[in-house]
């Protein structure tokens, strides 16, 4: 068997594997390696706040391939080293025919996504039931806390503030969101009206929004601080909190590639790919999703589209190994779109220059957080 090997099994990889599974020649198989089960970041923040939502961002990966077929899923397994024609994993799987920890590939697809702190991603190597327990624990910590400090006013900080404020209601908890920039979502490309609408909705729930300030003594991780303590802003102001949520950004999960060939990483550590998603200088190694340097927002809506193009290009190369990159399917970066929820009934976004508000956001995203799309993607009910 020749292996088409996936590192990571997030939305981009699932889409690519789905497109490949019925089309690969009989002497090829998919080997998917993932350190967790399926996880859905768009629903993770509500799952960390609202009891009953804890299972919504979780899907078993067991249903990925027919059990009696030739394709293999190695879950709860980390790829620890990338080589030119193989990877090394942190555990062998003799029961699945992998006696050694080195697994060769004909084609490799790097889909390691982004590094975010929990709960935007599960804790490393957490099983389904461990992550359920972690989310229930966070719900209970939030419920027991009175003074909630959110550090970072990007989409993640805004959505977490919205979940707590809308679930517990105005005035029940003291929620402060501290943002270092001039206004919420002030990166180039987003209209001022978008940040204004989101800020207005949070303030409507009683959230205090502090802009142009940094917390100088932020804790290392999200969680409860028993008894509470004071945190300080760069103007000296003290804010007391018994729960802190860190939303200060993310980074590409590209360490594997840094130790393989650091020249294929750009300054922000994203993997450099051509328009066919081949890693610069390696025609048989592809990368897709959040970990790449494609010039567009890091969103699953785009990542899924990468998956379909990668599947099609791997099939083309299998049929014609000397095919040039020019003859492969080419990807055009997706448009700049965003929808940010503020609890299940609020939110705002920017779509082709329009800035829809709470009604539209609730209809399209905030109520469902696309959970049924996620479960469908992973073939679970
Ligand atoms: C709070 C939040 C809300 C969001 N809301 C939206 C939204 O509304 N709409 C939208 O389009 N996008 C949204 N996103 C972004 C979206 O979640 C990502 O763009 C998407 O998950 C990227 O998919 P991916 O396949 O690139 O990687 P990921 O989803 O990051 O998956 C990568 C997988 O690879 C595994 N992995 C990594 N390294 C290894 C290794 N060495 N060995 C084995 N496995 C490994 C990881 O465990 C993970 O399972 C949101 C993100 C967050 C945090």
CATH class of the largest domain: Alpha Beta
In CATH, what is the homologous superfamily of the largest domain?
Answer: FAD/NAD(P)-binding domain
| Average pLDDT figure | 95
Q: State the CATH architecture of the largest domain.
A: 3-Layer(bba) Sandwich
Reported by name, the CATH topology of the largest domain is FAD/NAD(P)-binding domain
Residues in helix, %: 25-40%
Question: Which radius of gyration do the C-alpha atoms yield?
Answer: 22 Å
Shape: globular
Q: Helix and strand string, N-terminal first? A: EHEEHEEEEEEEHEHEHEEEEHEEHEEHH
Low-confidence stretches: none
Q: Based on helices, strands and strand pairing, what is the structural class?
A: alpha/beta
Cα(first) to Cα(last) distance is 31 Å
Largest sheet: 6 strands, mixed
Distinct small-molecule ligands in the complex: flavin-adenine dinucleotide
Tell me how many strands there are.
Answer: 20
Count of helical segments?
A: 9
Name the beta content range. Answer: 15-25%
The side-by-side strand order for the widest beta sheet comes to 5-2-1-9-18-17
The count of domains is 2
Protein name: FAD/NAD(P)-binding domain-containing protein
InterPro entries: FAD/NAD-bd_sf (IPR036188), FAD/NAD-binding_dom (IPR023753)
Keywords: FAD, Flavoprotein, Oxidoreductase
GO molecular function: electron-transferring-flavoprotein dehydrogenase activity; flavin adenine dinucleotide binding
């Amino acid at each position: 068997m020749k292996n088409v090997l996936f590192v990571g099994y997030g939305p981009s990889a699932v889409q690519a594997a789905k497109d490949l599974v019925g089309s690969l020649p009989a002497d090829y198989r998919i080997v998917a390696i993932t350190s967790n089960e399926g996880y859905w970041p768009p629903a993770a923040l509500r799952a960390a706040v609202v009891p009953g939502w804890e299972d919504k961002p979780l899907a078993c990966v067991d249903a990925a391939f027919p059990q009696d077929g030739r394709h293999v899923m190695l879950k709860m397994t980390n790829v620890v080293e990338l080589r030119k024609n193989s990877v090394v994993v942190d555990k062998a799987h003799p029961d699945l025919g992998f006696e050694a920890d080195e697994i060769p590939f004909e084609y490799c697809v790097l889909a390691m996504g982004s590094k975010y702190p929990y709960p935007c991603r599960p804790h490393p190597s957490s099983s389904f039931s461990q992550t359920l327990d972690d989310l229930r624990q966070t719900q209970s910590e939030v419920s027991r806390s009175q003074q909630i400090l959110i550090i970072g006013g990007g989409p993640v900080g805004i959505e977490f503030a919205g979940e707590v404020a809308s679930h517990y209601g105005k005035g029940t908890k003291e929620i402060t969101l501290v943002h270092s920039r001039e206004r919420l979502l002030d990166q180039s490309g987003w209209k001022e009206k978008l940040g204004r609408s989101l800020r207005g909705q949070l303030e409507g729930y009683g959230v205090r929004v502090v802009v142009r300030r940094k917390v100088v003594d932020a804790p290392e991780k999200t969680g409860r601080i028993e008894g509470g303590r004071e945190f300080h802003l760069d103007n000296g102001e003290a804010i007391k909190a018994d729960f802190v949520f860190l939303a200060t950004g993310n980074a590409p999960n590209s360490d594997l590639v840094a130790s393989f060939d650091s020249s294929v990483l750009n300054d922000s550590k994203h993997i450099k790919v051509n328009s066919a998603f081949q890693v610069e200088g390696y025609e048989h190694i592809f990368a897709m999703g959040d970990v790449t340097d494609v010039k567009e927002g890091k969103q699953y809506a785009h990542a899924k589209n990468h998956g379909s193009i990668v599947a099609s290009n791997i099939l083309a190369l299998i049929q014609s190994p000397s095919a040039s990159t020019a003859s492969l399917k080419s990807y055009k970066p997706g448009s700049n779109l965003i929808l940010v929820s503020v609890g299940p009934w609020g939110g705002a976004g920017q779509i082709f220059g329009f800035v829809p508000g709470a009604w539209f956001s609730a209809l399209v995203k905030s109520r469902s957080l696309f959970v049924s799309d996620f479960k469908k993607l992973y073939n679970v009910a």
